[in-house]
Specification:
The protein has 602 residues and is an alpha/beta fold. Helices cover 50% and strands 10% of the residues. The strands form five sheets. The protein has a seven-stranded mixed β-sheet, with helices on both faces. A two-stranded parallel ribbon has the order 1-2. The chain starts with a helix and ends in an 11-residue tail after the last helix.
């Protein structure tokens, strides 16, 4: 027996063992239907291995393989792309249908040509398998959650951690990627044999002929349907983010360009920052506690009018809820750097933000202590120049479990507050309501709304149980904030204290077939950009800042955004700098006679 035959035999034996195990086991209580689906994937791989072991290989040229792979990807991994184009075509004329059909042929030819250019010698099979697997993964998230694959989404994927990845790998993920990616990749790897060209000159000639033919087809089709394609490109610009796998390639290219080092030193922000003379008066130190929420949407806060009691713990007269706040982005990788920067939503870019200082740098330069306490996957480099404590990376130390619920932030806040007698900003970064595993964001004792969706395959849950689970996470966030305020009340005899809670972005919970977040901001529904913000001010801090809960309440329905945070923190710590804009300072707005002025982009 040859080494290849031996390897195939061992692989087949392993697959048979897995199949036998699946037949006899209900993993973690999965239903029999799921086991049947898994066995379908295994059965497909059985057939491929048996075909290869019997030497019934399919002989294809490199060009033939390129066309087969591209047909699979264009047809099966781009269903959302074709659905959008087909729904937006001019159905009253044959021309619209013809334009979509010819575009399919052109994309098939273009992808095949690109693949053929990569199918040289031994690279053909590895590249084909990589394209099939990658396209299947991308297609799964597009079809399942209604997301688009753009620069922001790929940036989120690159910056996530293993625990967040595990939350996304549901049984449905394995089945979908298995059928659309693993099975065809296994077929290519085990059952396809590449016919080698007789010479490299002939191979080059064939590739050039393919390029010429595809170019001719593309130009002819574009000329025939230019008006149709131009209208689609103008009116459906985001459809390009649905075309797999070019969407991921374009996004990676954009991220590479934005991450190229453009300067060796950070641009200084607020170089003239100094404390006002009033800040040096003999009075208690000021502590601002900024709680950055995760994936909390304003639509599910009862403080803002939501019909379910998700904020019972926060029903107190001295707490102010701001009902009209929008986020800078629809993902953490965008919103977190943006809310701490002075750039503003309209001009914000990751490239610019990474090349300049943020509000933490300005505060430290002016003599304010700053500390960051992390209980999720990272601060996106916002906190890299201030002392940072990660509870997320050391859960056994802080809560004796694989992961810590957000209530661990309360004792961590107490430690940070007691560690300094100077004016200080303490940032608490929560896990909040990060999905899709919302049921993991609160302990079983906080399960108030039932039934719940206790799985990361949220698209398989009914909307009521999904909403219950998400609302439980919001209610638990409220409990954590209430416990923090209770402790801060006791500490207010020693410090003047402000607590400000602000979420990074919202979330979609199945409305319109959309789940999670991350859509381009101009396309995102309101639920992904409208976020909760609330504030509690101790009596001493209220006197110090010249505001009261009633004064703040009077301007609480004005329009605010993440842009307000930078200037509100400068105002709270009484910092003089040319970077400060009083029109974006929440405290200055409350003190002014026109609280309803426009303070956020539409």
């Amino acid at each position: 027996m040859s080494s290849d035959q031996g390897a195939i035999t061992l692989l087949m034996a392993a697959i048979l063992s897995i199949d036998d195990w699946l037949t006899r086991t209900a993993i973690g209580g999965f239903v029999n239907k799921s086991m049947t689906e898994i066995r379908k994937v295994v059965a497909c791989v059985h057939a491929l291995v048996a075909c290869a072991s019997a030497r019934r290989a399919l002989h294809l040229s490199a060009t033939g393989l390129a066309f087969v792979v591209s047909l699979w990807v264009v047809a099966l991994d781009n269903r959302a792309f074709w659905r959008v184009l087909w729904d937006t075509r001019d159905s009253s004329s044959w021309r619209g249908s013809a334009a979509v059909s010819m575009l399919a042929v052109v994309l098939w030819a273009l992808l095949a040509t690109a693949l053929r250019g990569l199918f040289w010698r031994w690279m053909a099979k590895p590249v084909a398998c990589l394209v099939l697997l990658t396209s299947a993964v991308l297609a799964h998230f597009i079809d399942t959650f209604g997301v688009v694959i753009d620069r922001g989404m790929i940036r989120n994927a690159l910056e996530t951690d293993l625990r967040e990845i595990a939350d996304l790998l549901s049984l449905r993920w394995w089945l979908d990627v298995g059928l659309r990616g693993l099975v065809p990749a296994a077929f290519v790897a085990l059952a396809v044999q590449i016919k080698r060209s007789s010479s490299w000159r002939r191979e080059t000639r064939d590739v050039l002929a393919l390029v010429l033919g595809t170019t001719t087809l593309t130009l002819a089709t574009t000329a025939a349907f230019f008006a149709d394609y131009a209208a689609t490109a103008r009116n459906q610009r985001e459809v390009r983010h649905l075309l797999t796998p070019t969407n991921a390639l374009n996004a990676l290219w954009g991220i590479w360009k934005e991450r190229r080092p453009s300067r060796t030193t950070l641009a200084t922000v607020g170089s003239d920052a100094t404390r006002k003379s009033s800040a040096s008066l003999d009075r208690k130190p000021l502590m601002v506690v900024l709680v950055v929420g995760e994936t909390a949407r304003a639509a599910n806060f009862s403080l803002g009018g939501y019909g379910r009691p998700t904020n019972v713990a926060l029903n107190r007269p001295d707490l102010v809820y701001f009902s009209n706040v929008v986020s800078c982005g629809t993902d953490t990788a965008t919103s977190l750097p943006c809310m701490f920067s002075d750039i503003g939503t309209e001009r914000f870019s990751i490239t610019e933000a990474s090349a300049r200082e943020n509000i933490l740098d300005v505060l430290v330069r002016a003599g304010v202590d700053a500390a960051w306490i992390e209980n999720t996957s990272g601060c996106k480099e916002v906190c890299k120049r201030v002392p940072t404590k990660s509870l997320f990376d050391e859960p056994q130390r802080w809560c004796g479990a694989a992961t810590c619920f957000d209530d661990v932030l309360v004792p961590a806040l107490q430690q940070a507050a007691d560690a300094s007698a100077a004016d200080k900003l303490v940032v608490l970064h929560m896990q909040g309501s990060h999905g899709p595993a919302y049921f993991k964001r609160y302990p079983p004792t906080a399960r108030r709304f039932t039934p719940t969706c206790d799985t990361n395959s949220i698209q398989g849950c009914d909307l009521e149980s999904l909403r219950n689970t998400y609302d439980n996470s919001i209610a638990f966030t409220s409990d954590v904030l209430a416990r923090s305020i209770e402790w801060l009340e006791r500490a207010s005899s020693r410090k003047d204290i402000v607590l400000l809670y602000l979420s990074d972005h919202g979330e979609s919970l199945g409305e319109g077939g959309l789940y999670l977040h991350g859509l381009p901001r101009r396309l995102a529904p309101r639920t992904q950009v409208q976020v909760p913000m609330l504030m509690w001010v101790s009596p001493g801090a209220a006197r110090r800042l010249g505001v009261t809960p009633l004064v703040l309440q009077a301007s609480s329905d004005a329009q605010y955004s993440h842009d307000n945070l930078f200037h509100t923190l400068l105002g709270a710590f009484e910092i003089d700098t040319a970077a400060y804009r009083s029109g974006l300072d929440i405290f200055a707005i409350a003190r002014s006679s026109g609280p309803r002025r426009r303070t956020a982009p539409p």
